[in-house]
Amino acid sequence: MTAVELIRKKREGASLSPEELHFIISGYVSGAIADYQMSAFLMAAFFRGMNAEETNAFTREMLHSGEIADLSSVPGVKVDKHSTGGVGDKISLPLAPIVAACGVPVPMISGRGLGHTGGTLDKLEAIPGFNTALSISEYKKVIAEIGIVMIGQTKEIAPADKKMYALRDVTATVECIPLIAGSIMSKKLAEGIDALVLDIKTGRGAFMPSYEKAAELAQTLVDTGTNFGKETIGFITDMSQPLGYAIGNWNEVMESVDCLRGENIPDIMELTYILGGAMVMLGKKASSLKEGIDRCKDVVKGGAAYEKFVQMVKRQGGDVSFIEHPEKYPVSKFSRTVTAQEGGYVTAIDALELGLTSVQLGAGRMKVDDVIDPKAGILLAKKIGDTVKNGEPLATFFTDNKNVLDSAAERVAKTFTIGSNPPKRNPLILSQVDKNGVKPFVL
Ligand code: URA
What is the pTM of this model? Predict the structure, then answer.
């Protein structure tokens, strides 16, 4: 076997055997296969795709390139959630403590934001002192002690993905369903979970904007998880406007804390309760999705979910005084409020453009090594369907960078479409996906 032969084979549209995929991936990790050969292979896979057997073998190789955390000594069914990412998607922050407070252990390994989408790690690191860089042995200790742990990808977890993802990012080979499935599922399977809930976004702020592509990705992810013996269910959810009102890192932490303290921000809590209900059901603490949702609502109402969040922040070295007294947190040097130039109904908000503007403000990164400003971001004053009067605020943004104020103000203003009639509203949760296929979501 040679790399050139296998690249040619994939280029011609043939499928590769598990042994051939092992040769490519282990060769790349060891350095025997160079970046330029892997780039060619990735592009061939991008155009030719992979069948289900190849996708499973590819995922297995990525998974076994590193360690798989053994959480068998932690009692209970361990369940995680993964979202394909969006704008204002802070759901993991309220969700994980809610589910853990219901008695289901949640071991979560998350990623950083890239491009227009935010990342859970960046949000957690906005909390002064919060340590997301735990070793696998520390990760196991924390989940055993408090039933929740949230960390970043360590060097032991799926190192093949770490190396390949960086290459995909600079070779325009990210948006390929089998490559995404191998990348996401290898990391999730390495966490030591027993079951997984997936949130696959669709709409303008999503990584897979078209519903058809999102559904295909959802089914591939669910089938891959199922194939590895993990009960996996997915939901296809709308990302045509940001989730909640906050975009940015610290302001998304604070919005999550408000939700955990009982504030009902409708889209955040609707999605959190559906995903949470499914996790609690898969974690065998409820016999149906409805019962799981009720359990989640109870732990928010009774304060146990907020207490679990505080316990996790403390255990991972975070300074809880900033959560309890957010007025202590540093503020951006500059802020601007963008107002409506006409009255009517908000009929659309461009999530993609708001995500990209938040990167310009300092809240995100376009390259993996860009440094982010946790204070920077955007707070929406209006969402789709709201009425607005001429001159009323639409959004306020925050930054330390004086040079971007005018262009950001112009961009934010353009993201809002105002019309004279109330818009037709799409449901937030569009479909449910399991091993039997994709079906419309009904509770
Ligand atoms: N997120 C990942 O972790 N991997 C991908 O390939 C795409 C999104």
Answer: 0.96
- Per the residue annotation, which of 122, 161, 350, 373 is the catalytic one? 161
Between CA 8 and CA 336 the distance in angstroms is 54
231 and 377 assigned to the same domain: no
pLDDT surpassing 90 at residue 114: no
Ligand 1 pocket: which of 62, 167, 174, 200 to mutate (most atoms <8 Å of CB)? 174
Judge whether 123 and 252 are in contact, CB under 8 Å. Answer: yes
- pLDDT of the residue at 51: 97
pLDDT at position 354 = 97
Q: Which domain holds residue 85?
A: 79-324+428-440
Ligand 1, atom 5, residue with closest C-alpha: 180
DSSP tag of 117 = B
The C-alpha atoms of residue 201 and residue 210 are separated, in whole angstroms, by 9
Question: CB of 257 within 8 A of CB of 309?
Answer: yes
Query: Is 87 found in the same domain as 10?
Result: no
Which spans in 83-193 are helix H?
Answer: 92-101, 120-125, 136-146, 159-170, 177-190
* Region for residue 283 given its phi and psi (left: phi exceeds 0; alpha: psi -120 to 50; beta: otherwise): alpha
